[in-house]
């Protein structure tokens, strides 16, 4: 029987998080072997998968980018291809690209408490599409798959869709040959994807209508960061990047706290900004003033007010109503109005999927994630030598992702220092369970029950505050909440 290959640390996923994690482990734990397993044919994750028109970040690149890799592009709010190029360049420069194993999907993961190792069952797909099953073992498993389902988007069934005479597409699976120039387009949805699609498609379409059931908070932001541009003119790239990053972190935390503590004032600020960009107070009241408070759901950013400018120019419009059914000529609303369309884009949201669909087990027994708690927003009770990368909901994903990767490095070093073969977070008291993500958004509420939970305080709470998390993650005492299993002595008959 062939002994499976063993790797010290396996990272699942070669997206923005996985590439950053591999860099941190290479530099923070240089003596450890690392492998990155990627199910798809290329790296980049979200930024390689999504190809819809105008795809871009909804966070500034000084915080969405890596702290160790300066962002040099003029745009602060960057387009998808630029972000993908940045990820690939980072991997190439740091040598991480050589650690990635493509077309390798982890389908099962079991931790053996006797050997303190994970055994991963993987499906390796060759260029012809043939799949071969294999195994490998690792000492530490780090899931950087994000929490979206890459195979399926959320696509509700609309009555009469089969009668529609045009084309229906979902942003997650955008057809490369879709031609919408000069055509009438209806985009169903009002989240980050919809507000990105509408102004981009409006550049060539005859007209684009954003159909929303209810308004979303939308905030105009500059496409370029003038302060960062000036810093880059005066200072070395790394210093300028660090200062711009710090400035934007401080602003983001302050604005989030302002919205949560003084929601009425925040509502006034956001409606005033929308009114200034749109020039139509009545339209702002009807289509851009939600009933919920800012940051009850994620706030959508539009660079240089592009959505508002498209509406103001008449190239796009917003309708707030519900879909009654599709009809041959378009979409009929509950009000009875029919929106004529040649193309309908169902920007109806994403599906959440915990750990990329892996159901982890310990000694052959599945660990039910919804019964577990997150420690430091990273490690999970009941799962030894395991971490998951979960970004912020109120700020750039990479801020927390990078902290988690640095925490994993600390934990790996901690295990070596204490002589532990395994560690697992263990609460010292009963915890009050709360959802991992504290957002009222539909895509969260539909699936969050399948994820680990957060507690009510201390390291068991998933905070949305980078400065506090940075101090706790990088300086906190690991020994207080991690239960360690000492390494077993090597039997004499195995000593050479």
How do the strands and helices of this protein lay out in sequence?
Layout: E1 5-12, H1 16-28, E2 34-37, H2 46-49, H3 61-64, H4 80-94, E3 100-101, E4 104-112, E5 117-125, E6 131-143, E7 148-153, E8 167-169, E9 184-188, H5 192-201, E10 207-212, E11 218-221, H6 226-234, H7 237-261, H8 263-278, H9 281-287, E12 300-303, H10 306-312, E13 316-320, E14 323-327, E15 330-333, E16 338-340, E17 343-346, E18 350-352, E19 361-362, E20 365-366, E21 374-375, E22 379-380, E23 386-388, H11 397-418, E24 420-425, H12 442-445, H13 466-475, E25 482-486
Parallel strand pairs: 1-2, 1-6, 2-3, 4-19, 6-23, 8-17, 9-10, 9-17, 10-13, 11-12
Antiparallel strand pairs: 4-5, 5-6, 7-18, 14-15, 15-16, 19-20, 21-22, 24-25
Helix pairs in contact: 1-4, 1-11, 5-10, 6-7, 7-8, 8-9, 11-13
Keywords: FAD, Flavoprotein, Monooxygenase, NADP, Oxidoreductase
Protein name: NAD(P)/FAD-dependent oxidoreductase
Pfam families: FMO-like, NAD_binding_8
Question: Quick summary of this structure?
Answer:
The chain is an alpha/beta fold. Helix content is 29%, strand content 24%.
Fold and architecture overview:
- By secondary structure, this protein is of the alpha/beta class.
- The protein is built from 13 helices and 25 strands.
- Strand 4 (104-112) and strand 5 form a beta hairpin.
- The longest helix has 25 residues, at 237-261.
- It starts with a strand and ends in a 10-residue tail after the last strand.
- Residues 490-496 have low confidence and may be disordered.
**Quaternary class:** single chain
Rg, please? Answer: 24 Å
Query: End-to-end span in angstroms?
Result: 22 Å
Structural class: alpha/beta
Number of helices: 13
Provide the low-confidence segments as ranges.
490-496
Number of E strands: 25
Pfam families: FMO-like, NAD_binding_8
GO molecular function: flavin adenine dinucleotide binding; N,N-dimethylaniline monooxygenase activity; NADP binding
Family: Belongs to the FAD-binding monooxygenase family.
Cofactor: FAD
């Amino acid at each position: 029987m062939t002994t499976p290959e063993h790797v010290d640390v396996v990272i699942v996923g070669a997206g923005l998080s996985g590439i950053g994690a591999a860099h941190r482990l290479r530099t923070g734990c240089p003596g450890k072997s690392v492998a990155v397993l990627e199910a798809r044919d290329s790296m980049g994750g979200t930024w390689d998968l999504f190809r819809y028109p105008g795809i871009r970040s909804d966070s500034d690149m000084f915080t969405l980018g890596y702290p160790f890799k300066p962002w040099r592009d003029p745009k602060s709010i960057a387009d998808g291809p630029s972000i993908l190029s940045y990820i690939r360049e980072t991997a190439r420069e740091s040598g991480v690209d050589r650690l990635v194993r493509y077309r390798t999907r982890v389908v099962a993961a079991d931790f053996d408490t006797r050997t303190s190792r994970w055994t991963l069952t993987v499906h390796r797909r060759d260029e012809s599409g043939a799949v071969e099953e294999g195994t490998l073992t690792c000492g530490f498993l780090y899931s950087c798959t994000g929490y979206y389902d890459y195979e399926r988007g959320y696509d509700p069934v609309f009555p009469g869709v089969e009668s529609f005479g045009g084309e229906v597409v979902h942003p997650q699976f955008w057809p490369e040959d879709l031609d919408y120039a000069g055509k009438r387009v209806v985009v169903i949805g009002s989240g980050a994807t919809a507000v990105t699609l509408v102004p981009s498609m409006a550049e060539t379409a005859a007209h684009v209508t954003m159909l929303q059931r209810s308004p979303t908070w939308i905030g105009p932001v500059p496409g370029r960061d003038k302060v960062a541009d000036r810093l880059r003119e005066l200072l070395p790239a790394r210093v300028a990047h660090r200062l711009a990053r710090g400035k934007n972190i401080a602003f983001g935390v302050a604005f989030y706290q302002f919205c949560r503590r003084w929601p009425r004032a925040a509502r006034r600020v956001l409606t005033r900004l929308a009114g200034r960009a749109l020039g139509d107070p009545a339209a702002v009241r009807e289509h851009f003033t939600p009933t919920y408070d800012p940051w009850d759901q994620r706030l959508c950013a539009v660079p240089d007010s592009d959505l508002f400018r498209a509406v103001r120019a008449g190239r796009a419009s917003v309708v707030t109503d519900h879909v009654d059914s599709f009809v041959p000529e378009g979409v009929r609303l509950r009000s009875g109005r029919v929106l004529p369309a040649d193309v309908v884009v169902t920007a109806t949201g994403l599906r959440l999927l915990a750990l990329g669909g892996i159901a982890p087990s310990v000694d052959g027994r599945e660990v039910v994630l919804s019964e577990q708690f997150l420690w430091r927003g990273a490690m999970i009770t009941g799962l030894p030598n395991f971490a998951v990368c979960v970004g912020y909901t109120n700020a750039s994903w990479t801020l927390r992702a990078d902290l988690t990767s640095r925490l994993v490095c600390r934990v790996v070093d901690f295990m070596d220092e204490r002589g532990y073969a395994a560690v697992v977070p263990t609460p010292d008291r009963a915890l009050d369970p709360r959802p991992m993500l504290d957002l009222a958004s539909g895509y969260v509420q539909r699936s969050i029950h399948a994820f680990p939970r957060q507690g009510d305080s201390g390291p068991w709470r998933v905070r949305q505050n980078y400065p506090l998390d940075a101090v706790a993650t990088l300086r906190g005492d690991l020994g207080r909440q991690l239960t360690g299993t000492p390494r077993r002595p090597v039997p004499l008959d195995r000593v050479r």
